Amino acid sequence: MKKIFLALAALLSLVSNAQEEKSLLWKISGNGLTQPSYLLGTIHITCDATLDEKVLKALDETNQLYLEIDMDDPELQVKTMQGMMMKDGKKISTMVSAEQYEALNMLFLENIGMSLKMLDNFKPSFVEMMLLPSMLDCPMQSIENELLKVTKEQNEDVYGLETIESQMEIFDAIPYEEQAENLAKLAEKGIESSKEMYKRMIAIYESKDLKAIAEFMKEEDNSMYEEHSDVLLDNRNKSWIADIEKAVKDNPTFFGVGAAHLPGENGVINLLRKQGYKVEAVQ
């Protein structure tokens, strides 16, 4: 159940030596800024999304919130549903064997009470994400939702670094057949295997070690993400920088994006440093 980590964010890329400090919260300053902004690496789905004191302090010191997408958009749900469908009338049932499809159908019936036949024309990566609640032995929580809640309490604005439409299109750039193959592997390995992997991922995230996160996502089972890191991470990171720069120059800003977007040569931290900003871990 690895594609979940990146749909909604993610965790790959090599970590440079300058980024080996164990922190998920980073302060952006210098380059003419009169007030700092902050960058937080998030995990989209977890068991405990409680924001620590450092994050709450950074939210108090900033005047607006940027997430990967504007989660306050009233049309978010409708746009998401529209973007989940495969193009050209393609179906999962034509991309896997009859045996694999039946195994997947049983997996969905047992875990979410829904037949896979109802989702046959959905992008396989999104179909797999629907199993996420079954991966957790706890009520599902979201760091983005917690950031959003605090921002609303402070009567501040929420923005997105990209549109929901562009985020949905990411999964058109990765071959549907490849996504379906990864979905079929989930049924072959069983739900318990995915549960254990997700527990490991949460533990690594909570260690705040970006290098460990990157190494986890380079394991054999995650090869699809490394092969498509340009689409999933690098290109998106580069496209965000102009908007990040404009935001921090206009207003002290808090940014919350998937932790995978922070490290590496093409990570947000390094790209901002290349633009002349001081980006330092908040310890």
TrEMBL record:
Keywords in UniProt for this one?
Lipoprotein, Signal
Signal found in the keyword field = yes
Looking up Pfam families in the UniProt record yields: TraB_PrgY_gumN (PF01963)
Signal sequence segment? 1-18
Record InterPro entries: TraB/PrgY/GumN_fam, YbaP-like
The name of this protein is Lipoprotein
The taxonomic lineage of its organism, from the top, reads: Bacteria, Pseudomonadati, Bacteroidota, Flavobacteriia, Flavobacteriales
